[in-house]
């Protein structure tokens, strides 16, 4: 067994030489995916006080609770952002990594300073879910039970770091939400207030998507980009996903692709495939399919 094990180890280590593109050795540590997932949940306890902790909170204890969480998470976030920035520096010829720690501290400060604004947006998201779903009986039910609220809240937090040009961490955060909910929202998407994903599972929202106010999506909706050849690299950073204007409703399993605009107040029916602009106040639907019914008893 020992001989077989040595042979196996030698074969695997030989593959490290042949497949070096997927190695990460002799370099600084990348940000920890496990730590960022824990940090995300800890930060959610600030966004939703009383929902992500077992400790009962009172109005008198909120200040000390919030201070404790921020003190606990700030330095940990700085470590992870510092790792991310140093990773980016090593990939850039123009970056000096001696400023990474200082920049990481600045990013962490700006992140926490943005939380009051995020809470205002999330409050409207929760209210939109409560008002938009007759099966919902309280705002608490939305926060505790609705996967779409978890996913969009994490995305809103990740979007802060994305706009600060922090690499890796925003994607780790939104992929954590994707793993937990089945909702895949890129951290770069710009999402307006009062956003509601009914049922939410299977929703995909791409990097350059822009969503206006009071937009409602149902499960399985894709706001994506058209396919690019593998040789095309200059598409990065360009607008390639849809813009959804205010008060749009998009029903289940609709697919909307490319840099197009769905106009204000439009309604997009289920199972549609949209690759061209849709004018405001327009309803798009597909013809009802013909059903074939066979009775085995006849």
Detailed description of the structure:
This protein has 298 residues and is α/β, with parallel strands linked by helices. The mean pLDDT is 92. The protein has 8 helices and 14 strands. The strands form 3 sheets. A 5-stranded parallel β-sheet has the order 1-4-7-10-13. A 5-stranded parallel β-sheet has the order 3-6-9-12-14. It has 2 domains: 27-182, serine acetyltransferase, domain 1, CATH 1.10.3130.10; 202-287, Hexapeptide repeat proteins (UDP N-Acetylglucosamine Acyltransferase, domain 1, 3 Solenoid).
SSE order and pairing:
Blueprint: H1 2-18, H2 33-47, H3 62-91, H4 100-113, H5 115-132, H6 139-145, H7 147-163, H8 169-181, E1 184-185, E2 190-191, E3 196-198, E4 204-205, E5 210-211, E6 216-218, E7 222-224, E8 243-244, E9 249-250, E10 255-257, E11 261-262, E12 267-268, E13 273-274, E14 283-284
Parallel strand pairs: 1-4, 2-5, 3-6, 4-7, 5-8, 6-9, 7-10, 8-11, 9-12, 10-13, 12-14
